[in-house]
Amino acid sequence: MVNSTTLAHLNTHMDHMSTVLSSYAGRDKAIRSLAFYLQLRSTSSSHHSKELLALAKQLSAARLVSRQFNHPGMLKACRQIWQAFDSGRIGDPLEFLTGAAVTGIYTVYGVVELLAWLSDAKLLSLNAARLYKWCLYLWLSALINGIIRQLRIIHRKGIEKSKEDIWTLIGLSCDFISGFNSVPHKFLWAGKLSMRQTAAFSLTASIIGFYKLCCFQPLPPLLKMHILVTGAAGFIGSHTVLELLNAGYTVLCIDNFANAISDEHGNAISLKRVAEITGKPVPFENVDVCDEAALEKVFSSNKFDGVIHLAALKAVGESVAKPLQYYSNNLVASLNLIQMCLKYNVKNFVFSSSATVYGPPAELPITEKSPTGQGITNPYGQTKYMMEQILIDVGKANPEWNVILLRYFNPVGAHKSGLIGEDPKGIPNNLMPYVSQVAIGKLPVLTIYGDQFDTVDGTGVRDYIHVVDLAKGHVKAFDRIKAVGSVGTEIYNLGTGVGYSVRQMVDALKKVSGRDIPVKIGVPRPGDVASVYCDPSLAHEKLGWRAENGLEEMCADLWNWQTKNPQGFSN
């Protein structure tokens, strides 16, 4: 029986090891390391040898149980299968099959480890053949799991460059060898290996395992990227900053309040609320990206790993009335930012593009391969298209750059806290903020522009996406850059893939709010088309991103924001 003093001493050791190791492997590795330490003590010294060996076995058993029956890998694999069926289609057959295989392997692995745990008490008395059999089961299950995991990585990346191929093969080799990690202590206990052999075995496996962690699952502090977010105080910007912080990124936010609200001290109210939600500081500077000198000061004072460029004038109708203002602002701001990135060696660039680059769709759903730049009806859409072309050319001229263009469809909703949401200056240009302001009484009536389109109820159909889902798309873009390293230039649609009509949106908000929303029918505006919705499957395949919120959540979160903030941030 281990006395309380010894237990307290060992617990202190374990807590210390857990703290040291938690950045890359957590308490599981700490328990394994401590168990091995106790084995060394019990073999090299007769003092407390029996109780230390007994405790080592207990710790090993605890490790096996905690490792297998709370295993996130098994849960993740199960979730992939569930999502495949939930979406109504299997999707990628190889992704589905490997997900199913991994689930099966984890299940078998868990059973084998449990049986090994139950056998630990009798392990010393096992004959050599039986012991080798147990170890072989454990090693094979770990090895098969590792191979499948690496095959899934190969498949997901699509391996386009030999460099990636080499690193993946190294990872596969690591899995072969690190599969031995669960074997040595069992050989030691059974007296089949000497202390030196076991120590060498475990040390080799541990070094390879640590090397693998550094190469393929780098330590969180080393992975933390510092991102510059332009237009950060706006609707999409504030939600994106929040999700970046939640994902462990650090940010510097800049905005000139063209589309955002400041307090009396010149601070961004939306970002102050983001800090309140996340409990993390949100650095902010009032900077106009069109001001080259001010922008250079930002770059010279900071080291950025990447940029998310959201800053732009964005009102479609206003862009028709003020085309020069839109071309000047949106293009100059973007060119300044690109020049600073080139000058200060910032090679990761995520751009806020728009579905307007497609113009009137020739066929639905819109994919990333659909024609762009044809029939664009407003200067706002033209500026987005022109910026895409510039960034594509910059990416070609600078192969080390990673450029991801995110084509938004129609963002709506708000954060579930009701602390941040869309607060347009003046009359809202977008449908749902207008509808919610009519519902709460700020505006008298909603005009529906046309009810004779070839749609379910005659009103225009669009692809609406919850702003939180959209924000998470930016995080996934940088996650991909971190994981792959070199992506070149990639383009993704961010939408739900489902279109809703104007009347359906109005009815959904009526249901959520319990308010009457008066409407009147107007004539269609120039350039209005019947339906626009996208195919977002590429983002799901490459980014691992999918919209999680439906129409009800969009409207519920929008109404929650509107009722808590009837005057917007001016409250």
From TrEMBL:
Residue span(s) of domain NAD-dependent epimerase/dehydratase: 227-495
Database matches in CDD domains: UDP_G4E_1_SDR_e
InterPro entries: Epimerase_deHydtase, NAD(P)-bd_dom_sf, PEX11, UDP_G4E
A Pfam family annotated for this UniProt entry: PEX11
Enzyme class: isomerase
Localization annotation: Peroxisome membrane
Involved pathway(s): Carbohydrate metabolism; galactose metabolism
A single Gene Ontology CC term: cytosol
Keywords: Carbohydrate metabolism, Galactose metabolism, Isomerase, Membrane, NAD, Peroxisome, Transmembrane, Transmembrane helix
Reaction(s) catalysed by this chain's protein: UDP-alpha-D-glucose = UDP-alpha-D-galactose; UDP-N-acetyl-alpha-D-glucosamine = UDP-N-acetyl-alpha-D-galactosamine
Transmembrane segments: 96-119, 131-148
EC number(s) on file: 5.1.3.2, 5.1.3.7
Superkingdom field: Eukaryota
Required co-factors: NAD(+)
GO molecular function, one term: UDP-glucose 4-epimerase activity
UniProt KW Transferase keyword: no
A single BP term in Gene Ontology: galactose catabolic process via UDP-galactose, Leloir pathway
Name the record gives this protein: UDP-N-acetylglucosamine 4-epimerase
